[in-house]
Design a protein that fits this description.
This protein is α/β, with parallel strands linked by helices. It has helices at 3-18, 58-71, 86-99, 110-120, 136-143, 162-175, 197-207, 229-232, 261-270, 272-276, 282-297, 300-318, 338-350, 380-399, and strands at 35-38, 41-45, 103-107, 127-131, 156-157, 180-185, 210-214, 241-245, 255-259, 331-336, 353-354, 357-358, 368-372. The chain binds pyridoxal-5'-phosphate.
């Protein structure tokens, strides 16, 4: 290995360690579920996005197995070159119906859907106006575009601040940009609050802007059968671009863009991850079709998700924990100090609960938290067990000063 490069890498890692930002993944030895074996220890897992428990659902597994028998394990090519099988097509048709949009284009992940769609629809005559807490994949997608987007120029608004959004829209009109694209998470991934989409859509209509919402954490969680924030707020037809993930509540992998047929047409021709990266294995598409069947016909997983969410939030609040105004299954437990949050994560793990500490730069400095996510895969006993562990760990940390 090139010696200066090795020295540079080692130095960078040492810096991360010094700043308590170094990450080591824990290893699951069982399927994703409410209770898992992780690093050799059985824990209640509160850090999974498997909201509906579909990642290990027997019906979804069977659909994948049947698809392997029928189609094999790989698509063999990029979508437009010969990697699109009828099962990929069927998934997109099902998703478009589910989302009440003309069309859907599936990408291999939500991250790639953002980095494929955003730069494809923007030119140097355009501006992107973003919520300051938008997901990293939105930020990276925006950075790949030639449009104006910088915070220093006034194109990033304070979290959910509609006056600030309006100020940016006014300024964008004065500057005469050709297109103005407002982008927001539907459900914010670290705070668990919901974007004020009706207000955003009203402002967009008033200022002639385009609206894009990233519903990664709303897919399967909010709206009719989990159709997302546009459905939740009754805004069908008024959100131009909707991004959904197939990797979280739907339990498999993938991301998609839902919108008008002409948008799909354009992304097939100009969405670079679509053009240059191989299609999903057919079993992925088949498993996702079965996941959609369940979401549309079996209300129990979503009911369980929300029953567990309500119970967990109320129980934490009753015990005096600060859940930061979250409104969805994503339930941050506020700690503040980075070192304390990380020590509490470790102590919880020893007690048999996995709740990841989220620290700077994922959230602001001094805003560290333990992020918990109840799901349909948790039993009441799992959540009671977790609550008792949270109380013990907090008592230990407060009495230690
Ligand atoms: C997880 C997430 C993504 C990425 O989705 P994947 O399918 O995991 O690639 C995109 N946006 C938001 C807001 C997310 O939380």
């Amino acid at each position: 290995m090139n010696a200066p490069f090795q020295t540079w890498l080692t130095g960078q890692i040492d810096t991360l360690k010094d700043q308590n930002l170094y990450k080591v993944p824990r290893i699951l030895e069982t399927p994703a579920g409410g209770r898992v074996v992780m690093n050799g220890k059985e824990v209640v897992n509160l850090s999974s996005n498997n909201y509906l428990g579909l990642a290990n659902d027997p019906r979804v597994k069977q659909a994948a197995l049947d698809a392997i028998e029928k189609w094999g394990v790989g698509a063999g090519a990029v979508r437009w070159i010969g990697g699109t099988m009828s099962v990929h097509d069927e998934l997109e048709e099902r998703l478009a119906k589910f989302k009440h949009t003309e069309a859907v284009l599936v990408f291999t992940g939500g991250f790639t859907a953002n980095s494929g769609c955003i730069p494809a629809v923007l030119t140097s005559n355009d501006v992107v106006i973003s919520d300051e807490l938008n997901h990293a994949s939105i930020i990276d997608g925006v950075r790949l575009s030639p449009a104006a987007y910088r915070k220093s120029e006034g194109w990033v608004y304070a979290h959910k601040d509609m006056d600030a959004l309006e100020t940016s829209l006014k300024k964008a009109n004065e500057k005469g940009f050709e297109k103005k694209l407002i982008i927001t998470d539907g459900v914010f991934s670290m705070d668990g609050d919901i974007a004020p989409l009706p207000d955003i859509v009203n402002l967009a209509e008033q200022y002639n802007a385009i609206v894009m919402v990233d519903d990664a954490h709303a897919s399967g969680v909010l709206g009719k059968n989990g159709a997302g924030t546009a459905s939740h707020f009754g805004l069908y037809g008024r959100v131009d671009i909707q991004l959904g993930t197939l990797s979280k509540a739907l339990g498999v992998i993938g991301g998609y863009i839902a919108g008008p047929a002409v948008l799909k047409d354009w992304l097939i021709n100009r969405g670079r991850p679509y053009l240059f990266s191989t299609a999903h294995p057919p079993m992925v598409a088949a498993a996702l079709i079965e996941a959609l069947n369940i979401m549309e016909n079996d209300p129990t997983p979503m009911q369980r998700l929300w029953d567990n969410t309500r119970w967990w939030k109320q129980a934490l609040a009753d015990e005096g924990f600060d859940t930061m105004g979250s409104e969805t299954p994503i339930t941050p437990v506020y700690v503040g100090d980075e070192g304390t949050a990380q020590a509490m994560e470790k102590a919880l793990f020893e007690e048999g609960v996995y709740a990841l500490a989220i620290v700077f730069p994922t959230v602001g400095r001094g805003k560290a938290r333990l992020r918990t996510m109840p799901s349909a895969a948790h039993t009441q006993e799992d959540l009671e067990f977790a609550l008792a562990a949270f109380k013990r760990v907090r008592d230990r940390f407060t009495s230690a000063g």
